[in-house]
Amino acid sequence: MTLTWKRFQRNGFLRAIRCNPPLPDEPPLPDESPLTAEITLDEVARRSGVSRATASRALNDKPGVRPEVRERVQTIADAIGYRPHRGAKNLAGGRSSLIGLVVGAPDLVDEPYSQALLQAIAEAADRHDEGLMLIMDSKQPSQRVRNLLLDGQVDGVIVSAVTAGEHWIEGLLDARMPTVLLGGHPRRRDVPVIDTEAEEATAALVDHLVGLGARRIAYLAGAAQRVDANSRVDGYRIGLRRGGLEVDEGLVFQGDFWRDSARALADDLLAAKPDAILAGNDLMAFGVLDRCLERGIAVPDDLLVAGFDGVESAYQPYDVTTMRQPFEALADRAVGTLVAAINGQAVPMEQLLDPTLQVRSTTVRPRR
Predict the structure, then answer these.
(1) 10 Å Cβ neighbour count for 319?
(2) Using omega within 30 degrees of 0 as the cis cutoff, is the peptide bond preceding 300 cis?
(3) In terms of Cα–Cα distance, which of 195, 159, 194, 193 is closest to 175?
(4) Which residues neighbour 347 within 8 Å (Cβ) at sequence distance 6 or greater?
(5) 208: closest CA among 368, 366, 358, 367?
(6) CA 114, CA 340: separation in Å to the nearest integer?
(7) Quick check: 139 pLDDT over 60?
(8) By CB atoms within 10 Å of each CB, which of 101, 147, 315, 368 scores lowest?
(9) Residue 366, by phi and psi: left (phi above 0), alpha (psi -120 to 50) or beta?
(10) Is-contact 89 152, C-beta < 8 A?
(11) Host H or E run for residue 86
(12) Spatial separation of the C-alpha atoms in residues 159 and 169, rounded to whole Å
């Protein structure tokens, strides 16, 4: 399904594709079919019981094919993973000048970090004179969507690390098309990574809280399978040791980067009687602040609260101290690295950018 995202559309250069799961009447895709498998048009024609010419006309929406035949040919082509060689067409005129961006659909809809990053990438692509196709991933997108990424319609792909580990994403990385990861991958070291230096940045947030007199700092961690979540909790421990404080694992609580989960965990956090709570991202800090407001806990007088990400539009009604991610620089580096890889240039395998501490009202106590 093609979506128009007016919020992110600029001069018509952004297209969005939502990768919905196959409809109930579509044949399931075999997991063992690799994205790189070579399925020929002759094979599609043979399985469809039509001539090669008819199969070609059906797949290319040409006239002279009965609707039921066209539907049968397309269904079989999707099921067996047929991929037309549009890349050969692009070679005649050079590149397609279109790059893809794969993000998680729930993150884009509900998560301000992903929204800010998408806006920054769209603007960076425009500066690099590249069109941008947005792919909102699902657990098992149709073969047609997979083909879209691999048949030459896009020259390369930026993949949000949030989607890393999904079967089809791993297949996409294995296909060896130019790819850049935004955020670290838990296992792979063969794909260029653009990320924020999260460990030292989180330690610096702890430094800030210790400098304000906090001695019992609780930490609300993000999703355990995420590389950035683990880097941030490591930074929390480094910051405590650097401040001369003991690392108490009883003050580390497992969240998932979402506001609702933080709100649900807030009573447990508060029961530990911390004088400061550091959340692995701003959304979870908002969840903690929601519960503090409900319970009448004064922030920052009774409790210091800080987060991580720094999405400007997300601060209503809370003005949270945070570590702001360099969205514009991350996006520009990701697009620039991908374009260089597409052009056959050698690119660094890891590039880490520094965020910026932004001190706001949740850690600024009035002078007495």
Answers:
(1) 13
(2) yes
(3) 159
(4) 192, 337, 340, 341
(5) 358
(6) 24
(7) no
(8) 368
(9) beta
(10) yes
(11) helix 86-92
(12) 8
Instruction: State the distance between the two ends of the chain, measured CA to CA, in whole angstroms.
Output: 59
| Residue 169 pLDDT | 72
The string of DSSP codes covering 268-299 is HHHHT--SEEEESSHHHHHHHHHHHHHHT--T
Q: How confident is the model at residue 238 (pLDDT cuts 50, 70, 90)?
A: very high
Between CA 45 and CA 50, with CA 47 as vertex, the angle to 5 degrees is: 40
Residue 36, token pair as written in the block: 């790189």
* Structure tokens, 75: 């269904």
**Which amino acid, residue 302?**
D
**Residue 236 near residue 253, CB atoms below 8 Å:** no
Q: Are 134 and 103 in contact (CB under 8 A)?
A: yes
Give exposure, 289-304, as e/b (b: 16+ Cβ within 10 Å): bbbbeeeebebbeebb
Judge residue 84's burial from the number of C-beta atoms within 10 Å of its C-beta, 0-12 exposed, 13-18 middle, 19 or more buried. Answer: middle
Structure tokens at 356: 């910026």
Per-residue DSSP letter, 366: P
Q: What is the pTM of this model?
A: 0.74
CA distance 359 to 361: 7
Q: How far is Cα 363 from Cα 368, in angstroms, rounded to an integer?
A: 15
* Type and span of the H or E element at 171: helix 167-174
| Helix (H) or strand (E) run with residue 17 in it | strand 14-18
